[in-house]
User: Fold Hypp8793 protein from Branchiostoma lanceolatum.
Amino acid sequence: MASSQVSLSTISANLAEFASQTSASFNKLNDSICHLSEDMKSLRGEVTSLQQSVSFAHDEIENLKKEATTENEKLQHRVITLEAKLLAAELYSKKQNLLFWGIPAEKDENLVEVVCKILQEELKVNNARNVMFVNIHRLPKIRGNPIIAKFVSMLDRNMVLQHAYKLPPKSGIGVSEHLPVVIYKQKESLRDAFRHARGKGMKPKYKLVGTTMYLCIGVSKYKTSDEYFDHT
Assistant:
């Protein structure tokens, strides 16, 4: 009977110790869960802070993109403005010049005499010898080596150009304004429309407005050949 009581006491003690250990384990587990909860809260705070930082950085990047786009547009506008001013200045510097085409180059040629002869015999200019020039020379880098003449008087220059408009189409000689390359290309792009209009018996003319070349037929004005053909 005593042996049975001892066993029960031992079992009771063991159970009490097990209960104590289990309680301690649960306490430790509870502490771990509490710490984990705190860590999760801290992690959530860090994630929230990171999200806010990313959002702020994204807004900053978007603002920088907008500023860059605005500055780029300003620079492009400035470049276009400067190019227009340079083109206008180049056009002004060449306004007193005329180019004479289709005159073969000769050794030791007297270009003043050559041009005066063209004015007299081909263009039928009265008092051609009274026309004064700043200088006359050839342009070797341009196909056909045209003669360029810079007139002292714009009145003489315009008068010669008016006479040149009366030259027969197949005379072999041409007279044209001295244009910047950009404007010359504009004129070349209108060539097909010019020929088509002339072939239809119209009276097409090139007209320079500011720094833009137009094809004019009556009151109509065309900036490109496509624009002309779309309306014919």
Summary: Residues 2-94 form the longest helix (93 residues).
